Structures are given as C-alpha cells and as structure tokens.
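Trying the structure run again after the queue cleared.
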Amino acid sequence: MVSYRPVKNGLLHNPHRVFKLAATCLLWMGLQCAHAQTWKTEVFTGVVMDSLSFVGLPYVNIQIKSTLHGTSSDAKGRFTVQATRKDTLVFSLIGYTSVEVPLLTYEEGIIRMSEKRTMLNAITILDTAIENPYEGLFEEEDRRWQKLTGKRLPFYYSKERKEKIKVARFNMQNQKAKTYVDLVIKSDELKHTLMERHHLTEKEYYDLLTQFNVNFNKVMYYLTAPELLSMINNFYSRMALQKQQKELEEK
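Done. Tokens:
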C-alpha cells in the first residue's frame, strides 16, 4: 500500500510520484542539452588503402554525404578534410565498393576499400522486327564508295525518316550528357570548390575543364554522378601536382 504524508501547504506527498517527476525532468533537460549541442568544424585525416594489398589508393573521391563538399586522397592515399562530428564521409573510386564512415567516433586511421566484383544477371533476348533491317549494314561500303566517287550509295531516305533519325540521335546524346550538365554546367559549387582547393583562376579552371573534356569525352557521359565527380577531382589533382613539380624544376 502506498503511504502519504501531509506537507506544509496541505497537499499530500507521494514519494513515488516525486521520483518519477524528477526523472522525467532530468531526461527532458538531457534531451534539450543534446539538441542544443553545436557541432564544431574539425580537421579529419587518414589513409585510404586497398583491403588486400594494403597499398595506398591515390585520388579516391572523399565526399561529405548529402553535399558536394569533400576532397581526394593524394598519391599515397593520405587525405585531410574539414567536417563536423555529425557528418559522414563517403569514399568512392572506380572499380571499388564505396565506403561510408560516420565521424561521430572517428579517430585517425586506415580506411580499407575492396574491389568491386559485378555479377551480371541472366538476360533473355527476344527477336523483334525492326523498322529498317538494312540500317547501318552498308556504312563501310558507303565510305569506300564516297571516297571513290564523292557520292554516297544510292539508298533513299524520305525527309520524314531523316528528321526522325536526327531527333532520336539528339535525344540520345542529351540523355547521355544529362549527368555531366547537372553536375558541371548547372552547378557553380563544384567550380568554386576546385578553384579554391587548387588556387585556380577562372580562366585556368575552364582551360583544365576543356582539357578534361578532350581527354575523357568517350567515357564521361556514361558515368554516374559519384564516378564523374571522382574522375574530375582526380584530374584536377593530377594537373595541380604536375604544375607544382614544373614550378619546382624551373626554380
């Protein structure tokens, strides 16, 4: 049976209720303190290595999750990045499985990445009729004929058919370039990040971007956003390192 005793103000005192009320208040105050905690920016360092060979992995893209901020590892796999304890770092490199590392309890150490092995699913190929079974079959012969006579082989396409082919090719090229346009052209954040990191002028940034487009035009439209971001970061880091080495040689 619960006992009660009177207090000075005439109210009854229940020790169990007082204990529960005090515990609730302490819990509420703790939650408020945790919520009000401010996350300070810190510098985090480490080394990214292959999980089997323990060789440092160069030019690994290191991105703060859900942002475009980050960095890349150097030639020996070492990295330095500014973030807060509430952040998570995402390590990605073409040919390797991405790794996510929460920074809440992170201490400087080794980040191990494993090679990605892709198993292809079985597919079924169905034979279907195509609109023009001869399209593309005579391209080599057409080039030879054009070289000899200056004219194309006498296959006729109607104007409507030609316009349809042009539209289809245009749509296909737009779809391939969408990731590149969204990440590089429409967003200024990547430009400002690379300019600040490598101390580039705007002209130097666009000169390097032009060189990147020339070097990787055959593959850059087929990459996912993280893969493309990793390739761009790696390219700018290599170019910056070459520039530094050239300046040291000139001195």
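The chain has three domains: 5-34, 42-113, 140-250. Worth checking whether this holds up in the mutant runs.
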